[in-house]
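Researcher: Structure for this, please.
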Amino acid sequence: MLDAPSYSLKPFFVSAVSVDIVIFGFENKSLRVLLVQRGVEPYMNRWALPGEMVKANENLDAAADRVLFELTSMNEVYLEQVASFGAPERHPAGRAFTVAYYSLIGTSAHPVSPNGWAKHAQYFDINELPDLAFDHADVLNACLERLRERVRMRPIGFELLPRTFSLSDLQNLYESILGETLDKRNFRKKILSMGIVEDTGDLQSNVNHRPAKLYRFDESRYEALVKKGFSFTV
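Model: Predicted structure, token format:
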């Protein structure tokens, strides 16, 4: 009988696991992303996504919540797992896999304050980003694609817009996220046919153009469509 070949798992248990978090927000009519300025090596002073190593005794979701709070003081944010990244050279200290999470929030509802090794924490316009540390540009792009897929399948805006808004405000929100210009007539026809907004009977005030009608979300209809899903094509 031949001897069984020697086999050890030890060489495989030498990699680190981290979480990186992409927080999208809508502010000043533009899609923004939260970044932190690193106060530690590697990539000292470079801007990056909030991220850190996962502890040996915690699961991924708990790590994501912890890291976001420790670096930005944000809590009670719903985070959705998107993808993992594991290129051998992605971290200069050695082999490190990262799991990416993302969320789309109303920035006013979640104040930001830098903590831990984060020197600064602030939102950047999605089209005016600094050079990011590690492979965080790839992580960000993957989360942005997931967000764009999601908004074509579920309505958005309830948490991101004021209580009353114009249809132009809502269209601007979709265009900022999708990164494309939508046909005005088709967009309005689609939104009104879905029944998620209702005319308040009021008009805009203090504007230097013809006041537009103001709408509000029909909360029950909105929540029903969020659960059911829909196909948003205009």
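Researcher: Any notable elements?
Model: The longest strand covers residues 16-27. The radius of gyration is 22 Å.
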